[in-house]
Design a protein that fits this description.
43% of the residues are buried. This protein is an alpha/beta fold. The protein has one domain: NAD(P)-binding Rossmann-like Domain (Rossmann fold, 3-Layer(aba) Sandwich), CATH 3.40.50. 45% of the residues lie in helices and 13% in strands.
Length: 242
């Protein structure tokens, strides 16, 4: 997929598996990618591999987000930075963990959108924002109350942003991956009593890969999706169609 030459795209959460895959796909498509994460050390591997630029900042700090994005000319954004929180029911959840999940996933997405959108509007060339949500915002998953709530908030941010930014030629969409079996996911979804029944309910019957998520993100950033805005695209092997 072409069309990214001369376009600068910020990817948050770039030190993670999905964020790193998105960086790789965008660099391969010709984009000028700015990879963001919490620390410079965490970003060094993806920068060395792809040649992307780096811009570390803390998603929970409005001062850091504002300082990082204030003078950064952008055409696009991928809000991929996130925190999984805890495995807990509503009766067991630790509210301090809930607050942190919301601060990173929902508030962080809004902060980046707030300051990036100002630049996109100032430059007047349109643009695209893709928020990485989750299947957990579309269907109820056991023990995911904090994470699901944060991603549902991301979905609302996506819809309202699409409405508000559309007149400036800026499209805003979200993707909703199923489980990507990373080392972080393995401790819960890798349990036979958890993962087995889950996969039995998924029409495609397999876990997603990082590239499975990166491809649709690149599509939604590209001119091939120039009339698509405000959508929530499941990348879930058909799980949410049940």
């Amino acid at each position: 997929m072409t069309g990214f030459e001369g376009r600068t795209i910020l990817v948050t959460g770039a030190a993670g598996g999905i964020g790193g895959a998105i960086v790789r796909h965008l660099v391969a498509a010709g984009a000028d990618v700015v990879a963001s994460g919490r620390t410079q050390d965490g970003l060094e591997p993806i920068a060395k591999e792809t040649g992307c630029r780096t811009l570390p900042f803390d998603l929970t700090s409005e001062d850091e987000v504002a300082a990082a994005l204030g003078d950064l000319d952008l055409w696009g954004v991928v809000n991929c930075g996130g925190f999984g929180g805890e495995i807990a029911t509503p009766m067991e959840t630790d509210i301090s963990v809930f607050d942190r999940v919301m601060a990173i996933n929902a508030r962080g997405t809004l902060l980046v959108t707030k300051y990036a959108a100002r630049t996109l509007i100032r430059l007047g060339a349109g643009g695209a924002i893709v928020n990485v949500s989750s299947q957990a915002s579309l269907v109820a998953l056991p023990n995911h109350v904090s994470y699901a709530a944060s991603k549902a908030a991301v979905d609302s941010i996506t819809r309202v942003s699409a409405l508000e930014l559309g007149p400036y030629g800026i499209r805003v969409n979200s993707v909703h991956p199923t489980v990507v079996m990373t080392e972080m996911s393995e401790f819960y979804w890798g349990r036979p009593e958890i993962g087995g029944p889950f996969l039995e309910q998924m029409p495609l019957g397999r876990w997603a890969t990082q590239d499975d998520v990166a491809g649709p993100v690149v599509f939604l950033l590209s001119d091939a999706s120039s009339m698509i805005s405000g959508v929530h695209l499941p990348i879930d092997g058909g799980y949410t169609c049940r």
